[in-house]
Amino acid sequence: MPPRRLFLSLLGFALAVLAGCPDKSPKDPACDRDEDCKAGQRCINKLCVECGADSDCPDGQTCQNGACVAANKVDECSTDQECAEGQVCKNGACLPCESNDECGPGGKCQSGTCLRPRACRIDEDCEDDEDCIDGRCLKPWKRDPPANVSCKMRTVFFDFDQWTVRDDARETLSAVADCLQKVPRDRGVYVVGHADDSGTEEYNVALSERRARAVADYLARLGIDPARLQIVPKGESELSGRGSDADRRVEFEWR
């Protein structure tokens, strides 16, 4: 065989052998110290690896099998109940509220804090005019004012142990009647009577009912259909916090 052909044959055989040999180099090169490893690696347990603990990795990454990988995000919350009182759960984080809608049924957002109705398990945990719905004491019968109605129904007050409509309340009730005349006749109001806490609970409930009825009768004489007026006696259960004079009152709520 000519020397040139012999040389080429040997060269081809050598390349074939090299190509068929598996890579014997370790996945993680052996080392004795960090200086034996590539830049960005360190020597741990005689192997060059990217990390040995989470502290070796950048923020947002964790060390797994010697390599830094993105850390799995753990949500702070999944429901509002897992947050501090007054906060809401948004995108897995407990945050201040931004609107009433975020505070659930009956809740209000004030200065970033949700003011929610009282928690309950059964209806008996709530006031007489409330129902326990989804763990909260709510008034499902209470409705928002009719659309495009700007008039307001102001509170009227009473003298001690009296239910007669005072002279200074007559103008207020005339304005209430005018307001009711401006809305559709299928919308009515709750006439809610209150009392101070100077008498017994039973007496104050009866007194608050007489006050609410006196107001409803006065509105009926002004032309308001009595069917649109529903009396709700509250007694002393909802004191105003502004003294006895403000406790003896009748308020209006849309229904």
- Named at the architecture level, the CATH assignment of the largest domain is 2-Layer Sandwich
- Taken in chain order, the helices and strands follow as HEEEEEEEEEEEHEHEHE
How would you describe the shape?
A: rod-shaped
Largest sheet descriptor: 4 strands, mixed
Distance between the termini: 112 Å
Mean pLDDT: 84
Q: What is CATH's topology name of the largest domain? A: 60s Ribosomal Protein L30, Chain: A
Tally of separate helices: 4
In the CATH hierarchy, what is the class of the largest domain? Alpha Beta
Main structural class: alpha+beta
Q: Report strand order across the widest sheet.
A: 11-14-12-13
Number of domains as seen in the coordinates = 3
Strand content: 15-25%
Name of the CATH superfamily of the largest domain: OmpA-like domain
Instruction: Give start-end ranges of low-pLDDT stretches.
Output: 20-27
Number of strand segments:
14
Spatial extent as radius of gyration? 39 Å
Helix content: 10-25%
Can you characterise this structure?
Helices cover 23% and strands 20% of the residues. The protein is an alpha+beta fold and 255 residues long. The chain folds into three domains: 47 residues, no CATH class; 59 residues, no CATH class; 99 residues, 2-Layer Sandwich (60s Ribosomal Protein L30, Chain: A), CATH 3.30.1330.60. A four-stranded mixed sheet has the order 11-14-12-13. The relative contact order is 0.08.
Tell me briefly what this model is.
The chain is of the alpha+beta class and 255 residues long. It has helices at 3-20, 167-181, 201-221, 244-247, and strands spanning 42-44, 47-49, 61-64, 67-70, 88-90, 93-95, 108-110, 113-115, 131-133, 136-138, 156-157, 189-193, 229-233, 249-254.
